[in-house]
Write a structure and sequence with these properties.
Layout lengths: L1 H6 L1 E6 L1 E5 L5 E5 L5 E14 L7 E9 L11 E4 L2 E12 L7 E8 L4
Antiparallel strand pairs: 1-4, 1-6, 2-3, 4-5, 5-8, 6-7, 7-8
Organism: Salininema proteolyticum
Protein name: Phage head-tail adapter protein
């Protein structure tokens, strides 16, 4: 994990915040005014064409970072390699000594954004 801590990819997270919409309902939206930037490692999990031919492509990856990101959970948006992604599995802690302990989460590319 030490290589990724120093020279990994730059990943920008937008933590989720509660906001009241026009109908008075509380909704969770990404806070684009307070981005959090980390260095981490992104590994491709899988990719496939969507169910209907010609409708697009689905890409899923795993992000590994050195420490937890406050406010990150399922539905959080992030930007990596110039594209927006959604967190589809909440962050999981992988313990061990300081040199190897890390957090990982599964992300899916946002299509049609």
């Amino acid at each position: 994990m030490s290589y990724q801590r120093r020279r990994g990819d730059v990943i920008t997270f937008w933590p989720m915040v509660d906001q009241v919409n026009a109908r008075g309902h509380t909704v969770r939206i990404p806070d684009k005014t307070n981005p959090v930037t980390f260095r981490g490692h992104v590994t491709s999990e899988r990719s496939a064409d969507m169910e209907v031919p010609g409708q697009g492509h689905i890409r899923v990856a795993q992000v590994t970072i050195a420490r937890p990101v406050p406010g990150i959970n399922t539905g959080t948006r992030l930007q990596w390699a110039g594209e927006e992604w959604d967190v589809v599995a909440p962050p999981a802690r992988h313990g061990g000594p300081r040199a190897t302990a890390h957090w990982s989460m599964i992300i899916r590319e946002r299509t049609g954004v």
